[in-house]
Design a protein that fits this description.
heterodimer; A: mainly alpha; 3 helices; flat; B: mainly alpha; 9 helices
Chain lengths: 68, 262
Amino acid sequence: MKTLKAIYNFIVGDMIILIGILIVAIALWLISYVGALAPLRVAIGPILIVAALIVLSATLYREARGKR
Amino acid sequence: MEWAIASAAFLASAVEFVEAFTIVLVVGVTINWRSSLVGAFAAAATLAVIVGTLGVALVKYVPLNDLRIFVGIILILFGLKWLKKAILRYSGLKALHDEEAIFEETMAEVRARGETIAPRIHPFGVALSYKAVLLEGLEVAFIVITFGGSIKTASSNGIGSAALGAAIAGILVITAGALIKAPLTKVPENTLKFVVGIMLTSFGTFWAAEGFNYNWPLSDAFIPILAVIFLLASYLLVTFLKQQKRRQLTASKEQVMEEVRP
């Protein structure tokens, strides 16, 4: 458990960033490999940019609320 | 000697060397050069083993897209972590009692006394430098093999020409990087860390999307555009958080005044 926590702290140390980016990665993987989602493949780049910004805003918003 | 192959490999490899060297440079300037160089040399050694073992079969056995996704996602995680800290500092929301700040203060005091501290190996810096150099080095190897392998004549060796082009590109990029190293050290540390966050997130986004077979418009030239997008977004976030902080301060002042009023 200690090792896992050390790896988590070393890589990211923030649950919102970790879960947010993992969800985005899974969504992009589905878009890439599921035929029905093929039309979305042209938007993978923009989706990733927007998702990264949403994740960043979410974690900052939480920090700002926590400081109140 | 195939000049067309050598120049094509030179140009394509130069772009990859610049990307890898940018990460090595920012790790060197913001963390320390020891960690950065250890990571870079370890990656170069890994590359040598991979290329030496697999040779031209490298293109078949190394899943470059999977590697791009893995490295890209890790870089986005690292980048967002740094960007978050930098934005919180700029907006004044980061707590003053901060271990990193205390460490930086101590370092500044030590430097002011004219003493030096041997830089310790920082795992974060080593890992960043290692991953960037390994990924980009593999891309250079792919360029050399695919460009070089496309021409095979009795009189010339395509791979040799492509390797020469790539080697010249590498030497030029490293020389140029060594020249800009000194001016970079004069930039304030917080600003540098903010820039590192932007760069890691930009490179991570670029590589991860490429791993999912997405073709960026303008190809590698889109990386600076990504950096601008993240920079503008960070500026807006800092402005928003500063306004929030001001509003909170005004609200708490009014509350105190009301409590004090008889």
